[in-house]
Amino acid sequence: xxxxxxxxxxxxxxxxxxxxxxxxxxxxxxxxxxxxxxxxxxxxxxxxxxxxxxxxxxxxxxxxxxxxxxxxxxxxxxxxxxxxxxxxxxxxxxxxxxxxxxxxxxxxxxxxxxxxxxxxxxxxxxxxxxxxxxxxxxxxxxxxxxxxxxxxxxxxxxxxxxxxxxxxxxxxxxxxxxxxxxxxxxxxxxxxxxxxxxxxxxxxxxxxxxxxxxxxxxxxxxxxxxxxxxxxxxxxxxxxxxxxxxxxxxxxxxxxxxxxxxxxxxxxxxxxxxxxxxxxxxxxxxxxxxxxxxxxxxxxxxxxxxxxxxxxxxxxxxxxxxxxxxxxxxxxxxxxxxxxxxxxxxxxxxxxxxxxxxxxxxxxxxxxxxxxxxxxxxxxxxxxxxxxxxxxxxxxxxxxxxxxxxxxxxxxxxxxxxxxxxxxxxxxxxxxxxxxxxxxxxxxxxxxxxxxxxxxxxxxxxxxxxxxxxxxxxxxxxx
Length: 479
What we know:
Layout: E1 5-8, E2 25-28, E3 39-41, E4 46-49, E5 53-58, E6 66-72, E7 80-86, E8 90-94, E9 101-110, E10 113-114, E11 121-125, E12 135-137, E13 142-145, E14 150-154, E15 162-168, E16 178-182, E17 186-189, E18 197-205, E19 217-221, E20 231-233, E21 238-241, E22 245-250, E23 258-264, E24 273-278, E25 282-286, E26 293-301, E27 313-317, E28 322-330, E29 334-337, E30 340-341, E31 346-349, E32 353-359, E33 364-371, E34 380-383, E35 388-396, E36 409-411, E37 418-422, E38 426-433, E39 438-442, E40 450-452, E41 459-467, E42 470-478
């Protein structure tokens, strides 16, 4: 192509190797379009142009079909903000920044290449009406600011190229004012005094126009020492504190950002110490031991300071109410309380839930619970919210071998899918687990006397058949 720079290099090679590349050389082809466009407007070094939109015009170049124009923040065009092609001899750019110098140039083009670039001209946009900066940090009325980490921060202002800040101990900005102009939107302040209130403000400028001052904000620097916290609750020597939730509470300390608490059954805090750093002035403690004396203390800290420990206070947790569980056994069985065989009345913590299990054998059938626990469910749960008296009732099961009784037949036995009962005048059929629970009951006539049992758990059961002639019981094995 005409008017274009090309770059080239070479390397030698044979069947087994390739050399490094040579130096890179360049050459530029001649221009077909030898005449560069002539810039017309805006004129070079013009000022006060609108930053909303700037229009460009230039003269036509012989044989040029299109034109490429560029706008840059520098004259070397290494910071190009717009580069576009048009068939016209005019163009524009929108959304520029106030009070800023820009550079522009144009070249002609056709299908074979470009013309040389035109001259480079510059222009400067007008100043904007500047707003007062919005302050960010330190937050207004903030306290305990670390004097070694004070950074004044504010939002940038459209059109501004610099900012002027002032900081002083005088809220009227009459005496002791430090002022400086900077190009950034934040400034680190050094050399402040501890425990001192400072006032500060900022204005924006582009070197010609100045905004109003921002709001005046203030902050107070931290002090050199922190007071020990004052404990609030639980009161010292308090008793009957809930074991489920005890709230340690203390007063806040000026200058503190966090607190360290310790709680222990050791008054010297050498053993069994629980501790944590938290941001709040209270801590909820869970799962304490009953009837136990606890000691606790707190200290305040921030990023640089640490207070002495507070006083050491103590409290004693509650001793929970207990209720008496009495179990009476009628018949041949035994009862377990949470898996342990009952032998004598038991004291149980208030609101505990215990599981009562009636244990049976092949010849001993559990009938029902009575007293403070009713029903025939086995096992059964009981909540100890008062003294409880429970009776477990059992009866003795006489197992007849039905095979010797020609009036009733149950088969197959063992069974897997179903069983068939041959008997006349059946009134009721029950299948009873070894623990005494009725897992199947039928009190009406059923067709073919068949019972589906494949969904039952495998094991030993009793089948109890009541007819007009009496009651018959047989072992039933489900496989």
